[in-house]
Amino acid sequence: MPYSITVNGAVREVDVDPDTPLLWVIRDNLGLTGTKFGCGVAQCGACTVHVDGQPRRSCALPVSRLGNRQVTTIEGADGPEAKAVQAAWAARDVPQCGYCQSGQVMSAIALLREVKKPDDKAIDLAMNGNICRCATYVRIRAAIHDAAKALEA
Amino acid sequence: MSGSRLALGLAAVAAVTIGAASVRTGAATPEVGLRSVEDFAGIENKRERSLALFAEVGKVIQHPRCLNCHPAGERPSQGDAMTPHNPWVVRGTDGFGAPGMRCATCHSEANFDPARIPGAPKWHLAPIEMAWQGKSLGEICRQIKDHRRNGGMDMARLIHHMGEDELVGWGWHPGAGRTPAPGTQKQFGELFKAWTESGTACPKA
């Protein structure tokens, strides 16, 4: 079935089954492979993208339910929060294997857009659905604090 | 070769055992319907009839499909066994989750069975004052009648909530791997309405 979806500001045409998860469309049909497949059941957060600015597990969202909503993937992440997170991530050397980091970054950006100065609990609540097999959680939390400070300055 | 067969055999036994355990521990049973309002018409004593109607209503109210989203703490439970929701999520200030980890981060407006994710419009938790987990049916009954602990609803709104609310209705269409609430939402709504018309008696316990 044909669908017209907006990803990173561009309208894209895809022809897939209605139940196809958005993640598969992003990766297999559009070639945007920065978003990762981790579990396929919304348990790990590796597939996190933004839908109308809110974090969404793209493995659990069938393309048929997307409608006119705007999708942003890691390739299209932009704005002050995205830049601050990118800089903090690089400065802290956050990733180890890196597999989960696209999802971590997208969740961190979404958090900072809503909560300008998150405390540890707010960070934990927002990020606990993003699992890191290398356990870089301490660096992730520190980098989010760094990004918040940079945005405040 | 024989080792492989043994391993397969053990795996099969384990699967059967796990299956049986999940049936035993699940609060839901494969049963069941609800009795109709007419089934209670023969109870002449009004208070007795009211109590019997609420006991029938309680089969739904105390079903995991309802209790999971009426938690006594900040975190909902999930599944027929009512295990803590995984990942860790909280009610948040509006019942729709914490900033950056909203219910809609994973749940959409309908079930998505390929990923085993339930969903319905306005997927969210009941407010803390409407917590039902850990309470007896009598306690829940008195809570439902208390404006301060029922979302400020009068009986008309409660009847609508129970019988027609879309999120409540999800309990009878919960998607793959989850036992539906007993009966139908229509039957449940009729029983609840009949209870309100019979004097809203609450069990002591």
From TrEMBL, chain A:
Domain 2Fe-2S ferredoxin-type: 1-77
Keyword hit for Repressor: no
The keyword Cytoplasm is assigned to this record: no
GO molecular function: 2 iron, 2 sulfur cluster binding; metal ion binding; oxidoreductase activity
Keywords for the protein's UniProt record, in alphabetical order: 2Fe-2S, Iron, Iron-sulfur, Metal-binding, Oxidoreductase
Protein name: Isoquinoline 1-oxidoreductase
From TrEMBL, chain B:
Name of this protein: Isoquinoline 1-oxidoreductase subunit
